[in-house]
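Minutes, project huddle
Topic: does the predicted pose make sense with 6-O-phosphono-beta-D-glucopyranose bound?
PN asked that the exact inputs be recorded in the minutes so nobody has to dig through chat later. Recorded below.
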Amino acid sequence: MKRTDNQIIVIFGGRGDLAMRKIVPALLALHRQGLMPAGYAVLATGRSKITDEAYREEIRNALKEPDNGDNGNDLSAFLSAFYYTDIDPSVSGDYNTLPDKLEMLRQKSGSRGNTLFYLSVPPELYRVIPRNLALQGLNNEGDGWKRMIIEKPFGYDYASAVALNKILLEHWNESQVYRIDHYLGKETVQNILVTRFSNGIFEPLWNRNYVHHVEITSSESLGVEMRGAYYEGAGALRDMIQNHLLHLVGFIAMEPPSSMDSTSIRNELVKVFDSLRPYKNKEISRMSIRGQYTSAHVRGEWQKGYREEDNVNPTSMTETFAALKLHIDNWRWGGVPFYIRTGKRLPTRVTEAVIHFKPTPHYLFSGENVCDGCNQLIIRIQPDEGILLKFGMKIPGAGFKVKNVNMDFHYSDLAVERIPDAYERLLYDCMNGDSTLYTRSDAVLAAWRFLDPVIKAWRNDHSVPLYGYPAGTWGPEHADDLIEEPELTWRYPCKNLADDGVYCEL
Ligand code: BG6
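Predicted holo structure (tokens), as shared on screen:
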């Protein structure tokens, strides 16, 4: 493993939820694997005035680690690299002391000028912080590299994403900007590329000649929880589809890159996004479904409807469920529909892609021997991470009775102790200057460009209905109408990869 450059990591929003739940635990995991640089410091920023010690204590509490034995010592060593400074990110003058603070930490940690800025802040600050840093010369790479990680959402629609990009690139180079989509940090998402490109058996079938359709689901059983204010302005389309689900489409649909380097992979991803067939206004109500959860009893517990959640408008039109049918107009995928759906307060938390292969050209086994659900390859992103192939086998005995059987691989069988969290991989990559799993500006813009007509229609055209669906169900029943053939429906996955249907463990 390459030794990571000594560096300073600056976290804007250092006391926030994301920092405490994801960023700091990821740094701790890297520290425990010996993957942090020999010399480094973490400078967290926030509006309130607290001391370094108080901040370290907050982290200690958030990590909920036992504070004794080896673990305690290990944690104390880790915490000693953390510092805190108060900055109101929107006040330029507050940045004046930052260069000196960084210089002091550089000397302490022996890290030259290498600096990673992590913007874990509300999106309106993405326009402000990069400029203020640049005014202090902190974008200048003369004394060492400078990189900036930006959380989603990158923009609100195509026009706002273009504007944000322009502001950013006034002071920073594209190569310095790391737009994060945590789905790309998931092992199982990266494994799509390995499954496809390290095995000769899939490639010949991976195209319009053999694939009937592709289905991608990302369902969550939770509602919007404490994020009503953010979610009201986002909705499922912006929150999940514009980034996570379109990236899954990209990895499933892309051509083999010429090599596994960042530029080659990102070039292929953009080609997929550029090939998405633009929606015509008049077809949007046929090609998209939106829904919003309503109150219901779920497994014995009463769950609020979306409009009753905190910080949500009681007449809100924000969608908590979104499903789209899309086409990729290129030689590989011409004529193959992709169906994608996501929603909150669905029966279970599952993300998976299902490649539905075409049936045999002439089916020989009739009547009850039709093999329902055969010819499917299921790539399970989470939970019960793995891959499952469904096909028909003969039931022993007289005649030709066909049964749908499974051949499956579960990550848990690999006997690796754990699957690393996405943030671990992504932080490590950025610390090492590898942008492969970060989104390039052309890809972000292409994704927004594709979704813009849907965003506009859902906002302006009331002929596109917003269906209610009871919490704990699979979204509006109309979502089945997206799928062209009347006998086909979505797969209804369960917690366990091998199960599906109505009677499964959720
Ligand atoms: C985030 C969304 O990007 O992804 C959340 O903002 C969503 O609303 C989350 O819950 C889902 O991520 P995961 O890794 O739990 O599938």
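Observations noted during the meeting:
- The chain has two domains: 7-151, 184-368+448-482.
- The mean pLDDT is 92.
No decisions taken; revisit at the next huddle.
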